[in-house]
Amino acid sequence: MIPCTVADLEAADLDLLVIGGGIVGAGVALDAVTRGLRVGLVEADDWGGGRSGHTGTLVHGGLVDLPRIGVGAVAALRRERDLLLDRTAPHLVRRVPMLLPFHRGLPERLAVGAGLSVYDAAAFSFRQPGVLPGHRQLTRRAVRRLAPSLAMTDITGAAQFYEGQVDDARLTITVVRTAASYGTLALARTAVRRLLTVDGRVVGAELTDAAGASATVGARAVVLATGTELSRLLPGAQLGPDAPAGPDAPAGPGAPAEPGAESASGAGPTPDGRLAAPIAETVHLVLPRGRLRSSTGLVLRSDGRGEARALYVVPWGRHWIVGSTAAWVDPEQLLAELSRHLERPIGSESVESAYASPAPMGPDMGRAPSIHQPMPGLVLVRGSSLAGYRADAERAVDAAVLQLGGLHPRSVTHRVPLLGADGFNARWNQRHLLARQAGIPVLRMEHLLQRYGTETAVLVAAIEERPELREPLSGAEDYLVAEVWYAVAYEDATRLSDLLARRTRITRETWDGGVKAAPEVARLMAAELGWDPARRTAEIDGFVERAIAGRWQP
Ligand SMILES: Cc1cc2nc3c(=O)[nH]c(=O)nc-3n(C[C@H](O)[C@H](O)[C@H](O)COP(=O)(O)OP(=O)(O)OC[C@H]3O[C@@H](n4cnc5c(N)ncnc54)[C@H](O)[C@@H]3O)c2cc1C
Predict the structure, then answer these.
(1) Which residue intervals define the domain Alpha-glycerophosphate oxidase C-terminal in the entry (predicted)?
(2) Mutation test residue for ligand 1: of 9, 63, 226, the one with most atoms within 8 Å of CB
(3) Both 310 and 439 in a single domain?
(4) What is the rounded distance in angstroms from the CA atom of residue 453 to the CA atom of residue 418?
């Protein structure tokens, strides 16, 4: 990624300043820059450090939300999901089979079948065949064969359907990098303190970078894509007790992150074997794949607290991710709820890690995105889902373009492949050959292609030049040393936590939360970034301290 500083942003003559480097802000930057606007993008933490790096990883077409959001919204979401799978991010988004068991015999089978048929039909409403196969109904026997761990007591059959799945933080950094490749000035670890206004119009923002340097950045329009922090930056917003309110008062989520600081709380097994409760509201669990026997993901209905909810169990490499459509505060409760559906309950000792989103799921989950223009020069956008980010961004930029006089072209992002997507299918077909040429096992090549797409060529070229990069990473052998090098050189990883938690997902995929891998990764990062011994020690100590406290967020 082209390095950018606050001074670059200050000197730039920006059409649009985008605040918030989650999936929506990244999408807005990409949409705007590919329409010909001069764009700046700032993020207070790391790219994807907010909700976008802590999702359940499903790129869903809105099935669970069908009754709430209606067929039209579901059709639009499915179209976006299929675009990602087929055209813009086939290297990152892959299909995942999901199984929805029936418990009440024929009436339920008919009702759910009808809902799923509507869901399938929604894919065809745009006169294009669906990218994923339609649903099919399964007998009780087939359910037992596909998911032997399920308690079969009252299961009468199931529906099988397909969704997309993605490494959410990787999708976010890839959208940011794609936007940067078209000229967006993108700067992480830089918090916007307040919006600047002249005669009631927003004309830019005041921001502070990781080193504490402040700058005033002018822009003809500003898009706020700060997720749950949306309203806090509005002039006149009610601030926290220690911050003075008023139009000119500094606002925002606080100081930019310290090196290695985390934006989210987490949860993990404590020394007594119980799972520590997260501070934030919605938790996901990570289990070893072997602990739950199933060759498909699961959607399990769970009624309680007066609301219908669904648990989802999604395959994630050699692991499962367990989440819910409703907020679960307590990981133990989530585990107990999952166990209710299984032949053998799963104890907390089987949980590899748990992660919590820094913000609750919120009532907007799965709903249409909200776009507001509270004052001239300002657009607020709140996204709906991973699948919907591109369309949400398009609508936000449409609104911003109107504020700029309406002369810019329409969105083209439905035809802009993300970095690594162009030519991916051919490279995937050549993976055996590529693996032989690179001198690595085919499984490794598949791992690289599904994370970097055609950018894998950059890693392979580096491996050829520096054979030590071919080695598995000590403490997290699923990854290669080359991936640490690449994350630092190309993906704006500047802190140990950026690398262990988001460029890789080592924190959630290892029993120790990345503690074992931390010293080696820090050594490699120090060599690339020129850290002195004190900085290296501080990075490791800070990371390990949080991991051991059980408050680590993967
Ligand atoms: C528990 C949970 C599970 C979910 N699971 C799924 C799922 O499986 N599939 C799905 O499609 N969706 C899921 N979602 C929804 C999804 O996470 C959101 O729709 C999406 O991430 C929203 O992206 P965003 O960019 O709007 O917000 P965020 O990712 O939160 O980004 C906002 C960014 O703004 C930054 N920011 C805030 N203030 C400032 C400031 N002053 N200056 C600079 N930057 C600032 C923050 O640091 C943050 O990175 C889930 C949500 C939750 C909470």
Answers:
(1) 411-536
(2) 226
(3) no
(4) 10
Domain co-membership, 253 together with 384: yes
pLDDT digits (tens, 9 = 90+) for 276-316: 433 346 789 999 999 999 999 999 987 655 556 789 999 99
Q: Which of 415, 449, 484 is the last residue of a domain?
A: 415
Question: Which domain CATH number covers 476?
Answer: 1.10.8.870
How far, in Å, CA of 491 to CA of 351, rounded? Answer: 30
d(Cα 200, Cα 458) in Å, to the nearest integer?
A: 48
Distance from residue 227's CA to the centre of ligand 1 (Å):
5
In angstroms, what CA-CA distances link 509 with 168, 289, 422? 15, 11, 29
- pLDDT score at 116: 81
Is 79 domain-assigned?
no
Ligand 1 atom 9, closest CA:
58
> Of 338, 357, 376, which residue is a domain's last?
357
**Six token digits for residue 120:** 């399938």
Q: How far apart are CA 51 and CA 358, in angstroms?
A: 6
For the chain, state the CA radius of gyration: 23
Torsion (CA) 214, 218, 222, 227 in degrees, nearest 10:
-10
Distance CA 262, CA 503 (A): 14
CA angle 359, 497, 209 (to 5 degrees): 75
Instruction: Tell me, yes or no, whether 135 lies in a domain.
Output: yes
- CATH at 348: 3.30.9.10
Please, are residues 342 and 150 in contact by the beta-carbon 8 Å criterion? yes
**Structural domain span for residue 475:** 424-548
- pLDDT tens profile 490-544: 999 999 999 999 999 999 999 999 999 999 999 999 999 999 999 999 999 999 9
Q: What distance in Å separates the CA atoms of residue 259 and residue 265, rounded to the nearest whole number?
A: 16
CB 61 within 8 A of CB 161: no
Q: Are 183 and 39 in contact (CB under 8 A)?
A: yes
> Is 501 found in the same domain as 448?
yes
**322 ligand 1 Cβ < 6 A:** no
Q: Does any domain span residue 454? A: yes
Same domain, 430 and 539: yes
**Overall domain count for the chain:** 3
Instruction: Decide: 192 in ligand 1 pocket, CB within 6 A.
Output: yes
* Contact assessment for residue 91 and residue 167, using Cβ atoms and an 8 Å cutoff: no
Whether 443 and 543 share a structural domain:
yes
Neighbours of 363 (CB within 10 A): 8
Element spanning 207, H or E: strand 201-208
- Are both 157 and 289 inside the same structural domain? yes
Q: Is 374 inside a domain boundary? A: yes
Nearest CA to ligand 1 atom 38: 226
| Phi-psi label, residue 208: left if phi above 0, alpha if psi -120 to 50, beta otherwise | beta
